[in-house]
Each structure stands twice: as C-alpha cells, then as structure tokens.
Design goal:
The protein is mostly helical. Helix content is 69%, strand content 0%.
C-alpha cells in the first residue's frame, strides 16, 4: 500500500476543495432563474407543412454535444490513467465510448 506524505494529503484536499467550488459555481449557474425582459415576445408561428430547419439545427447541436462528450470522456481516461486510477473505472469509461 502506498504511503502518502502530509504534503500529498494537503494537496489532494486542496484539489478536492477546488473541484467542489467549480462544481458549485456550475450548479448555481444552472439553477439560476432565466432572465427575461419586461416585454415578452410571442414565439413565431409553427409551420408544420414541411421539414423544419430547426430539426437540422437540433441534430447539429446534438452531434456537437456527442463529440464534446467523447473528448471529455477520452480526456478523463487519459488523466485517470496518468494518476494511476483503478483499471475498472478506466474500463467503464472506455465502455461509455462504445
């Protein structure tokens, strides 16, 4: 079993606290109520006659989101393998990429 120095433990605690602060900031941004102007605009009428351009844009956004997720998971695998993380965790992340 590896032994850790007091400095290693304190550095790990500091990194954990930094990550918690980052996560809290993102959670606060996600939970913030949307800002609306005093004048609310009505949405444009929906035309159901043909294929919508919005569907194409939504598919593009979904593809971009999938691509970002792929690279985030790949980066996690790389970082965790460099840190010597458990192999089952790395394999689980690899499974997500399939």
């Amino acid at each position: 079993m590896p032994s850790f120095s007091e400095a290693d433990i304190n550095a790990a605690k500091r990194r954990v606290q930094e990550m918690r602060n980052r996560a809290q900031r993102f959670a606060d941004e996600d939970n913030a109520p949307p800002v609306h102007s005093a004048k609310q605009e009505t949405p444009p009428p929906v035309d159901n006659a043909g294929p919508s351009k919005d569907n194409d844009e939504t598919e593009d956004e979904t593809a971009k989101s999938d691509e970002k997720s792929f690279f985030v998971i790949l980066a996690l695998i790389f970082l965790l393998s460099k840190e010597g993380a458990d192999n089952t965790l790395i394999l689980a992340l690899l499974y997500l990429l399939l």
